[in-house]
Design brief:
This protein has 542 residues and is of the alpha/beta class. The chain has two domains: 159 residues, Rossmann fold, CATH 3.40.50; 332 residues, tm_1862 like domain (pyruvate-formate lyase- activating enzyme, Alpha-Beta Horseshoe), CATH 3.80.30. Helix content is 36%, strand content 17%. Helix 10 packs parallel to helix 12.
Length: 542
Amino acid sequence: MAKVLFINPLVREEDVPRHVPYGIALLAAIAIEKGHLVQVYDANAWRKGDDVLKSVFEADDWDVIALGGITTAYGSIKHTVAIARSVCPNTTIMLGGGALTSIPREIMGFLPEVDVGVIGEAFLTFPELLEMVDRGSSDWSKIKGTICRSADGQMIISPARELLEDLDSLPFPAWDLFPLEEVYFPNSQVLFSEEGMLASRRLDINASYGCSLICRYCYHLGIAGDMRYVIDKDQNTQIEFDVPGSYSRTIRYHSPEYVVRLAKHAHDKYGVNFITFLDENLMTMDKFSGRTWMKEICRLWHENDLAPRPDDRPGAKEGTWRGVHWSGTSHATLCTKEILKTMRQAGCSHLVYGYESFAPHVMKTIGKGATPETNIRSFFWTLDAGIRPIPNQIIGFPNEDFLSIRQNMQAWGKLGIVVKPFYATPYPGSEWFSVYRDSIVKQYGSLEDYILDLGDATRITGVISHNFNAVELLGLREMMINFDYKRIDEYEAIWRRNHGIAEGAPSTLFSKPAKDKPQGSRVVISTPKTKRTDAGESLVSV
């Protein structure tokens, strides 16, 4: 059987490592189930530098070195595969994850060290690749969902890989292979709620894959049915994601029974007292289950003695609890008062809301379906339920203007909050990346330079705003969070003079797209065929 070394690349180096890489943990568990010999070097957790990385590559005769990660890990991936190839010239190097899936031809071109890439979901593809390694073959193009090179160096994209229908067939993540006690548990605290701040042993769970929304800044990693294989004018297969006017979604759920079994496993085996749900949008899953999925998870949370209560055992520290608190994501138009109260009673401490903006004209271009009114309503509903709402916002949308900036500040005043917005960042795979790609390359000189510069949107990278440049966005955000209306007014007068826009006219250079609501959208709901609950058929995902 193959000797497999997984490498988790560095990501968010400005922060401590907080999250076990869920995808790698699942693939490692799948490989172990198939009988392969698996090791993991978590470079993001250990951060020990190149000398240790080289010693890991030298530690055994690896048949496979496998990496994966999101686009912001690309710089670390590029550095890692170069070292891997120099130390292990005959080892097969495989790459997957969002970094590759978003633009596979380009990434394979940038990384000649990689032998084969996995496009989209790897649950079915990766085991087949390992089987081929066992047979001593390297005819990767025969395996669906891959990209590799022909003998003459041309890129070959094999036919599309279907998504896994029965998510409950997945094993539990191989958390044992990661430095939980040394790194991850000491960094358990999340500063979004009292319970999050007191968390001492936290792990993450992904309960579903997919989201019904068409947010134009978002990229679903090829796991939401939004990925298409198209033939270009040169008769080459290309990978295409959301494009204006054409959307599709496949939404898949773990059953509530699987979710709670996994949570109980984390609690019983590792002493976990806090779980973060990584799902794109828990409320999407709840709505498409007929409002049964989240309710059933909460019921089973109680039934399995996971609902948190004060720890009254002798010697227990003040403020600690028995059971498991948890957090996740929500959506302004999809949550209800009832489900929020039910979630709180089962231990939900905080929910992240992607409010993005409180300006109606900006919100219409995003594709999220929310309004300022639903944003504000959901905020107070969540507070009333006893859950902390965590609002995310973004500045620098294509039609961002002085009006939207003031409307955001006014909404903060109503809510009694201040939000430091992220910057609108067109990550590869998102609709706005495809729309603004030429402009981004022009800003950077090359696509790879842009990808190397990408971070978590807390600092500015590629600008897609029609009205403001990078310097203006940096300054305006600073004035926003200080409620400095005076200087914003002063700068708008300067901006209008510079652009020849009269006072009283709309403060925008943005041309409205022809279609705010593209036609032809469809959502496909995928349901497991073997799981049922008392509430009916269970549906099986930032």
